[in-house]
Write a structure and sequence with these properties.
It is a single chain. The protein is mainly alpha-helical and 297 residues long. It has 2 domains: 119 residues; 142 residues, Alpha Horseshoe (Serine Threonine Protein Phosphatase 5, Tetratricopeptide repeat). Helices cover 68% and strands 0% of the residues. The chain contains 17 helices and no strands. The longest helix is centred in the first third of the chain and has 20 residues. The chain starts with a helix and ends in an 8-residue tail after the last helix. InterPro entries: PPR_rpt, TPR-like_helical_dom_sf.
């Protein structure tokens, strides 16, 4: 009835406000007390839980979102991909890459197949935290449960001697080949978002060759690059001093009808200024003509 629906909505709004009032790090017992009435409703309509978790993600409350999700599991409330996606997104906003991986791994244990939102959010969390290796392996399709750290009390394939093996550059080339050879057979394919995050992670980590190889994979997959992926690739050229490639990428942006912005120009100028000062001056002039501001660095 409409009365019952109104009461449920009121209880839902009241529960959410109480969660916000509990602060960023409430005790699990506090959350359990707040949601004692809600849990019964969630068993009948899981969408209510999705709204709560999504709201917590928007408010940048990852710890609360994780506590709520754990409480759902303990109370045997059925969890789905939207619940996990909201919780992982909450972690992504605060660069909590370990927590994001833990949640992604937990999906496998609960037989909840991840979707693009979950995987992209986890990759983005790794990128923001500078964990380019983990971002790249996630992009290659490696199960999250193999990447979770021992501190999360979950199985890992990157501990002890395995970690040393993972750190060798050859492993990342294996990951790149997996993307082109094995990913088409998987249920989830890389998207422009996951590619951009991984290219950015590699560029930030100083691994410009891998960043450019990822960009090549993106083009080979017939995706249209966006400004984020192009800027990340140009930044990688800057770090590698590859001014020719930086200029080529500026041309690629124009070919796909993307207007180079301040990041694009400034990174290309930085790549050219060490030995190619005339080109750098030309780019600086083009930047001004476009109404953009040169970097102070």
């Amino acid at each position: 009835s409409s009365g019952g629906s109104g009461a449920a909505s009121a209880a839902h709004a009241r529960g959410f406000e109480q969660l916000l009032a509990a602060g960023p790090c409430p005790r699990p017992s506090e959350v359990a007390a707040i949601l004692s009435e809600e849990l019964a409703l969630w068993s009948r309509n899981p969408r209510h839980a999705t709204v709560i978790l999504s709201g917590l993600a928007r408010r940048r409350l990852p710890h609360v979102a994780q506590v709520v999700l754990n409480l759902m599991l303990e109370s045997r409330v059925q969890t789905n991909v939207f619940h996990y996606g909201a919780a992982i997104s909450a972690c992504e906003k605060d660069s909590l890459w370990e927590a994001a991986l833990g949640l992604l791994s937990g999906m496998d244990e609960m037989s909840v197949p991840p979707n693009e939102v979950c995987c992209n959010a986890a990759i983005s969390a790794c990128e923001k935290a500078g964990q380019w290796q983990v971002a790249l392996l996630l992009l290659s399709g490696m199960p999250a449960k193999w990447l979770v750290l021992p501190s999360l009390h979950a199985p890992t394939a990157c501990s002890g001697s395995s970690r040393s093996a993972c750190e060798k550059a050859g492993q990342w080339r294996v990951a790149l080949s997996l993307m082109s050879d094995d990913m088409p057979a998987m249920r989830i394919l890389p998207t422009i978002i996951s590619y951009s995050a991984s290219i950015s992670a590699c560029a930030s980590g100083g691994h410009w060759r891998l960043a450019l190889e990822l960009f090549d994979q993106l083009l080979l997959s017939r995706m249209t690059p966006d400004d984020i992926s192009c800027n990340a690739a140009i930044t990688a050229c800057e770090k590698g001093g590859k001014w020719e490639l930086a200029l080529n990428l500026l041309g690629t942006m124009r070919q796909v009808r993307l207007a180079p912005d301040e990041i694009s120009y400034n990174a290309a100028i930085s790549a050219c200024e060490k030995g190619q000062w005339q080109l750098a001056c030309g780019l600086l002039e083009a930047l001004g003509e476009a109404g953009l501001t040169p970097s102070s660095v």
